[in-house]
Amino acid sequence: METLKKTCLYDRHIAAGAQMSPFGGFMMPIQYSDIASEHNAVRHSCGMFDVSHMGEIRVSGPGAEDFVNYIFTNDVTMLQPGHIQYGMMLYPEGGVVDDLLVYRMPEPGVFLLVVNASNTDKDLDWICRAADGRDVKVENLSCDYGQIALQGPDSEKVAAEVLGMDLSDLVFYTFKYAGYAGGQVIASRSGYTGEDGFEFYASPEVTCRIWDALLAAGVTPCGLGCRDTLRFEAGLPLYGHELGQDISPVEAGLGMFVKLDKPDFIGKAATARLREEGPERKLVGIELQDKAIPRAGYPVLSDGEVIGEVTTGYNSISTGRSVCMAFVRTSFSAPGTAVDVRIRKRTFPGIVCKKRFYDKKYKK
Amino acid sequence: MSKIEEGLLYSESHEWVKVEDGKAVIGISDFAQKSMGNIVYVDMPDEDDDIARNEDFGAVESVKAASDLIAPVSGTVTDRNEVLEDEPGLLNEDPYANWIIKVEMSDPSETESLMDAAAYKAFLDSQE
Fold it and tell me: Which of B37, B41, B63 sits opposite A292 (nearest CB)?
């Protein structure tokens, strides 16, 4: 059995009495108090997450820009230093290796790829194989970086007052170097909650110092439980649910992050073909009339026939409605379409809607 | 520490049963509600539905997950605690005061295989 890894903040989670659970190969905090309180802290003031499990892969060298553009769906030739792009790495067949953020670092020819913890090893292997024969250097820096996400409307103020970081000049999806406790910090205006907020990448030592300072200032520690409810409400995908090896970004509604007008990249032809033909299924939102909660894997039906499957579902903490994301046959994907979701032994009526249940509050 | 109410019978899946006027009143134990966390939805069977011992008859859901309710006895549902539809959190506040369903038992001798409070306490201790 694989030994579970610990983040640099592990001892603090245990001391705080967090409920811990394996996630992406790490032992991670699921909740400290309860998911709803932590969720609401992020929506209404701010909360902090240990996301040190995320993988960081540095790609550098004279061939770095061409190479990253070849393995990544977004167009990094359009990416300025200090800016971030979201996108995916695809298999030649069009499925998703992983979804990730690409940071163009201020140093020439250096990119930082931030990937899902559960996929870090697979991604690294994929990138190294693609890099064979190219003038690039690929390094796994995942163990060198801790990462804290400070999320919520008060984040900018808290970063200034508690950490002494003036981040007011950053707009969403940009970053800069900052300092804390004598160490360098990559301060990035980004996140996975639908709220304004920052992600801080720093050495494990500095990460612990940042965590302690934020905690002492009364920032709510938040676990992965509410990270999921928050990202879900904002319609953000999670690899393994809305994305995966057998799912195309076109099906998942993420076609805008696949730049088919740029030179060849892995998965381009397959994606272009699927967009041309039109996908057989699409990711939609479904709102139920009842409070029964649709969960991942539950079937979606029409007239008793299975036409899809739930990928993530909750009783939305922010709206109180039972909602889910689901892949359904394209002919049932128009908003307003009536469908049913089977929950255990019964079926519940629902209506197809947009898959964003909460409007994002990013600083543009 | 979980609270265990005297005078009730318990199942290994953490339901409690109280026999009242020949009917089985069924709820979940304090241990069950604590391990679930905030309960946000209770899926109950309808009146007149038949339930069978050791089979699921509904579910209790937290934000994160659904836990099946396993029938401690067999019989026909006579009452469902409809208050829980609007206030599922009552199961967190007091799981013993807030029952889920009442059942007309088809085989009252089934209660003999359930644990009393002392046996349930020993069972919980052995699970740790």
Answer: B41
